[in-house]
Amino acid sequence: GRLRLLTTLCCVVAATALTAAPAQAATDVYPAGSGTFSGGPQGWTTTAASCDPGAPLCTAEGAYDGSTGNPAGSYAANTTVALNAVTLFKSTVTVQSPDFTVASAGDGTLHLDRQLVGGALIDQAPEVTYTVDLLDRTSGTQTEVMTETLAVNPDFVGKDHAVSVKAGHTYALAVTAVTSSTVAGAGLLGGTTSFRIDNVSLSVQTSGGGGGGAGGTLTDQRLQQLISGNGSLLEPAILKGNKLSVKVRCPKKVGRTCKVALVGLLKKGKPATAVRKAAIRKGKTKKLVLKVKPKALPKVKARKKLLFKQTVRAGKAKAVAFKRLKLVKR
Questions:
Q1: Which residues contact 236 (CB under 8 A, 6 or more apart)?
Q2: Which of 19, 233, 285, 315 has the greatest number of CB atoms lying within 10 Å of its CB?
Q3: Is 3 buried (19+), middle (13-18) or exposed (0-12) by CB count in 10 A?
Q4: 104: which DSSP letter?
Q5: Whole-model pTM above 0.70?
């Protein structure tokens, strides 16, 4: 009777709503392995490595590094200078991803984490200028996506840049690092300086918008991209007494609530604060207050910047990012 008719109408309405729902965003990530270098080089190879002829005691190589990364695993452009080298050095190393074929055309995001470690050559003030090129194997063209010059920085820091791709085209990513000293050696020490890259990937939206939002595929790699760099932790951190206040944002493109665990560090593996946990809705910012450990407080007070580690879970995705924030004392 009436109850059966009402039930039927409800089912029809629900089915119609589901049929009419717009397609949700999904994201494809290239190349295979998403450039995490977790457990191996994932098909990346070194295509060129050399030092300038004017630096005969210099050698260059590109190599997989399984012990260092964000998390462990990266690809390194290493420059080694022999003992008693008193000249400036300059090396060029190019590494390349495996080829990948893009399924959908459109705008994408190139992401990488990068680090420059001076090692025993720190007194020569090494710097690196790296360039990322998109190689279109189908059309035979090459496009520079990003270039940047870095001084020594022991932390892996994320960087993103927009890029466009064509459906059905086969591509590869090439990263060229030119590492050089800016101060001549004293003739006493030799050693190695390393420029490392990690989480090098190209993310392309396959439908709709929102970059892996609700209903879309949010991968660990995509979440890593969204929270790295300037995506989540906002400067400055405020120190008042033994309390540290940090503003944390859940990027809107995450598409769901971020469950955040935040801790301040004197260095990686050495906490300066207790862990603070919070749930933050997408697109929202929340101030988290962390209690500084008594033994760490004098060291924290003496610093201009402090390293923070955030572990973020969103749906089934999980990512960890490190960022050094300016420290303001009040």
A1: 325, 326, 327, 328
A2: 233
A3: exposed
A4: S
A5: no
